[in-house]
Amino acid sequence: MPRVRRIKAPHLHREIFRRIMRSPRVVEILKQLLGPGVRRHGSKLNIKAPHYGSPVEWHQDWAFSPHTNDDLAAVGIMLDDCEMDDDCEMDNGPMLVVPGSHKGPVYDHHGPDGRFCGAMDPARCDLDLSKAMPCLGKAGSVTVHHVRAVHGSATNFSGKERRFLLFQYRAADAWPLLGFAGGIEKFDELLLAGEPTLEPRLTAVPVRLPLPPAAHQGSIYENQRATGRRYFATADRAVAAE
Fold first, then answer.
1. Which of 7, 57, 72, 213 has the fewest CB atoms within 10 Å, i.e. is most exposed?
2. What is the pTM assigned to this prediction?
């Protein structure tokens, strides 16, 4: 019973996603948060099927894509209701974010073999993960989280879909430290507001490069296969526990 967990770059496949990504209302909010210049960074549609949707272990987006400064953010749009059930349980796996963690350190996202795995080791961080706040709301609700915010999500144990559309943005003067494969012309095509610049803004932000690359390439789900540790239960483990 194969299930789709993620659609990468949905804005490349459907005009509706391109329109949302460029929405003037969204861009205006980002200009207030990131500065007058804003570039697109990426998009994805995370899909958690009922009674299955895979968990995403605790991580920081910054670990995957460090830049010359950390004025980057992700805008999430709930395509399904993501709320408490009648028993006050969050059973469909909402995104959880640790408040204030964007002001803290960049945690190690490497596995036991020393390779990048896209997940933190909860036992080796100084965060109280029990204080993470769920991002809840009706379909159409919007979230914004900073690139260094620690976040994750549990398995979808409910009988309801949980589809979450994410658009990633960066300040126009935030340049990826690992380079940009498309060249300067393609990079400037990502500009949504402001003017292009050849002067990256360098700030004193903590950086740990995602190298050596993950043993399992692909999405974050594949990267995290090599973590060697699990904070959130998977659907298979939950069934076995019952």
1. 213
2. 0.91
